[in-house]
Each structure stands twice: as C-alpha cells, then as structure tokens.
Amino acid sequence: MDRRQRRTRSLIFTAFSTLLERKSYTSMTVQDIIDEADIGRSTFYAHFETKDELLKALCIEIFEHVFSDELLSEENHDFSHHSTFKDRITHILYHLQEKQQSIKGLFSGECGEVFLRYLKEYLYCVFDEHIIVKDNIPRDYAMDIAVAAFSETVRWWLKGHSDYTPEEISRFYFESVDI
Amino acid sequence: MDRRQRRTRSLIFTAFSTLLERKSYTSMTVQDIIDEADIGRSTFYAHFETKDELLKALCIEIFEHVFSDELLSEENHDFSHHSTFKDRITHILYHLQEKQQSIKGLFSGECGEVFLRYLKEYLYCVFDEHIIVKDNIPRDYAMDIAVAAFSETVRWWLKGHSDYTPEEISRFYFESVDI
DNA sequence: CTGTTACCGCACACTATGTTCTGTATCTAT
DNA sequence: ATAGATACAGAACATAGTGTGCGGTAACAG
C-alpha cells in the first residue's frame, strides 16, 4: 500500500475519531470529516464510498487486532494456548483494553450500536467454538444471549467503569450469565 | 384530539410500518412516507419534526400499551397482582405478543436498535423494582446485563421464533441469566 | 351559521451528497 | 535520473432531500 494512501487513510480515521468526541455520528457530515482531516473532497471518496463504510472500516481495523491470534505470543500475559473459554474471554478483554482510546469515541450515540453489532459478529465465531448449551434451551438462543450479554459487558466496562481489571470483568460476566 | 389529526397520524404510522417491510430505515426518506401515506408535505411536518421523532412516537405508542397496568384487568390471563418478578416478565411478553405485527417491521435494519434502546428504558424501570443482586457484583452492571439479555430475548423471539409461548420464553430467560 | 383548525399543494432556499475534471506532487521501476 | 503511473488538491456541477412559508379548501365545534 502506498505511503500516501496510508497517510490519508490515517488522517481520515483520526479526524473521524476526534469528531466523534464532540459530534454525534448522524449529525456529522462527510464535509466535517474532510475539513477536520484537511483533505480534498474527492480524496475522501477515493477511500470510502460513504460515511458508513468509513465506520465499518474503522471497526474492522480494531477487531482485526482484538481478535487476532498472532499477537498472543507478543503478549506478556500468559494466554498462549487458551485452555478454557474463560481464558479466551479474558484475553479478548485485555486486547479491548489496549484499544480503549480508539474505542471510547465509537460508543457515543448511534454508532455505538453499529460498533457493538460488528463486535457481536466476531464474538459469535468465538463463542460458537467454546459454548456448551443446556439441552433444554435452544442453542441459537443461548448463543444470542451469551454474545449480547458479553457485548453489553464490554459497553458497560469501557463506558464509565474502565477501572476494573479484565479478570474482574470476566468474573462479573460468568457469574451473571449461566452458560 | 381532532378526528382529522387522528386519521393523519394513523396514516403516517401505517405508511411508516408498511415501508419498513420493504425499505431500510436510513434509506427511507420523509418523501417516501409522505407518498405512501398520500398526504401533503407540510402535513407531515405539522405532526412530526423529523423521521426520528416519528420512530420515537411509534415506539412510545407501542410501549404505552405493553407496559400499561390499566390493561391488566382487561386481560384474560390472571396476572392481576404480579406476585413474582417472573410473572411480571411473562405478562410483558404476553403484551408484546399482542403487538407482534406492529413490532415486527421495527426490527428490520437500523431502527431495530432504536426500538430496543427505548424498550430497555422501560425495562430498566421494571427491573429496578424487582431485581435482587448478588453482593459481589455491581448493581448497575447486573441491571444492564439483565435488561440487555431480556431485550435480546425479545428480539430473538419475535424475529423468527414467535412460535414459542411467553411462558417458554420466560423460562429460557431465567435459566440463562443468573440474577 | 360562524369562527377555527387541519389539510393540500406548490414554491423556495438551503444543505449535503457524490461525481468529474484539470493540474500538481509523490511514488516506483528501469 | 528519467519516465510513467498513481494519489492528491481544488473547484465545479448535477442531484436529492430537507424544512418552511403561504394562499386556498374542506372539515370540525359551538
């Protein structure tokens, strides 16, 4: 990827994140982002088709990191091979904590729901591998609840209670959801 | 309230609901609603300031019914005095089932999240009265999870699994969430 | 019967969007 | 180092949707 492209892409992302801290997503216009990033109009549209695509791209960039397995070895926390489901969850929470600053803005207002929707998609894959469901409950229901409760946990944590540790959050989650 | 006003309001609501079954909320324009309802442009704006206000008004109209206590006496189900929390929940599920047709369209796409956000506001009040939280878990966390899990339950139920009875749904919920 | 109110429908200013074009700067490969 | 490709700036443009304003008509309430 061209250096100029990376630079512009980065300018747009940071402008977008910065604006999210003062403006709501829907009230924010493409023009606002262009002005904040200080780039040409056509340049923006060369990178992203719409404002929604920009949001999606930013979310994906964050999740690529949060759910990446490559980074495990680089970690100082010893979750090299996720023996238990709880370890895997705690590990994801650690990664989310690292990206806290980037994520915080995304929670504000309407795009918080978009962020959490994308988060759920990734979580669904992780949970699908580990979850064991009681036989008197439909599996897809249990999945939905487990994922929704976890994404709500993340929202609660990073939006005003970020002083708790990943381990504590993990404990809260597993004591509240019966899976 | 004037008969003409009620008529127009109703026309707008039904037009909006009808459109939601073919178009997504964001792609839907005020003009679309006006055309579908077959009313004048200025008439729409005399009733609702924005599209969002319309959505809000529709949600509120539904919830006013679902969470109303007056209707209890009219019910054939005997939940006259909600002795237990579970009874109260089951009762709400019955009311949601009645409004199923109106609600179904609201789940599609982006406005589903708006609907669920408003639903959560009402649920928060109900849960706040009944919930008893373990002392090693923050109360506001437990509340958030309980409410989020229930709203997700409602989404799952009405969006593709509406063949289950309110009692079954209630059981699923209380077996999955540990409160 | 009369004053009030809601509606129609048309027009208008305004804002944001997405595209297109030309010239310039920056990168890449031979 | 030079040549061709690519990304960017800046401006112009058509398009579409928004919200408001006004005169005329029909329905309502007392």
Would you kindly provide a written description of the structure presented here, covering whatever features stand out?
The structure is a homodimer of 179-residue chains. With 179 residues, chain A is mainly alpha-helical. Chain A has two domains: 3-49, Arc Repressor Mutant, subunit A (Orthogonal Bundle), CATH 1.10.10; 64-176, Tetracycline Repressor, domain 2 (Orthogonal Bundle). In chain A, 70% of the residues lie in helices and 0% in strands. Chain A is elongated, with a radius of gyration of 18 Å. The mean pLDDT of chain A is 92. Chains A and B meet through helix 9 and helix 10 of A and helix 8 and helix 9 of B. The structure holds a DNA duplex (30 and 30 nucleotides).
Please outline what is shown here.
The structure is a homodimer of 179-residue chains. Chain A has 179 residues and is mainly α. Chain A contains ten helices and no strands.
List the helices and strands and how they pair.
Two copies of one chain form a homodimer.
Chain A: H1 3-20, H2 30-37, H3 41-47, H4 51-66, H5 71-74, H6 85-98, H7 100-107, H8 111-130, H9 139-158, H10 166-176
The structure holds a DNA duplex (30 and 30 nucleotides).
Number of helices of chain A: 10
Point out poorly predicted stretches of chain A.
Answer: none
From the N-terminal CA to the C-terminal CA of chain A, the straight-line distance is 44 Å
Written as H for each helix and E for each strand, in order along the chain, the element string of chain A is HHHHHHHHHH
**Number of distinct beta strands of chain A:** 0
CATH fold group of the largest domain in chain A: Tetracycline Repressor, domain 2
- Cα-atom radius of gyration of chain A: 18 Å
Largest interface, Cβ cutoff 8 Å: A-B, 26 and 27 residues
CATH class of the largest domain in chain A: Mainly Alpha
The global form of chain A is elongated
Mean pLDDT of chain A: 92
The total number of structural domains of chain A is 2
Strand content of chain A: under 5%
Biggest beta-sheet profile of chain A: none
Label the CATH architecture of the largest domain in chain A. Answer: Orthogonal Bundle
| CATH homologous superfamily caption of the largest domain in chain A | Tetracycline Repressor, domain 2
User: Which oligomeric form is depicted?
Assistant: homodimer
Q: Helix- and strand-based class of chain A? A: mainly alpha
